Amino acid sequence: xxxxxxxxxxxxxxxxxxxLSCTGFRHTTQSDCMAWFRQAPGKERETVxxxxxxxxxxxYADSVKGRFAISQDNxxxxxxxxxxxxKPEDTAMYYCAASKSNCRNGYPVGDYYWGQGTQVTVSA
Length: 124
Prior knowledge:
Layout lengths: L4 E3 L2 E4 L4 E6 L9 E7 L6 E7 L5 E3 L7 E6 L4 E6 L8 E8 L3 E2 L2 E2 L3 E3 L3 E6 L1
Parallel strand pairs: 2-13
Antiparallel strand pairs: 1-3, 3-8, 4-5, 4-9, 5-6, 7-8, 9-12, 9-13, 10-11
């Protein structure tokens, strides 16, 4: 049973940093990927950042490019999201996801593993 666990969320003022972590899973094939998604109240879930775990190729949503960085530590089976220059519009529940079999443009698609989420709140 795969269990992804996110941590590192919290409350921060605009302009500040946070680093999210996701533990519990490590892929063993080149074609797999992991990603961060987020969902704000009343809004649809959206992609934030993805990484192909075999090649370290990354992709980012336009809204976070230049501010966020996704990375992985295979030895620790941990996925990270470094978030800098946070804005109030980044406020959301952030979820970690890992592909079971399919990725598209660096993001898991179809059936994949999810974590329980960690809340990020950015105040103006």
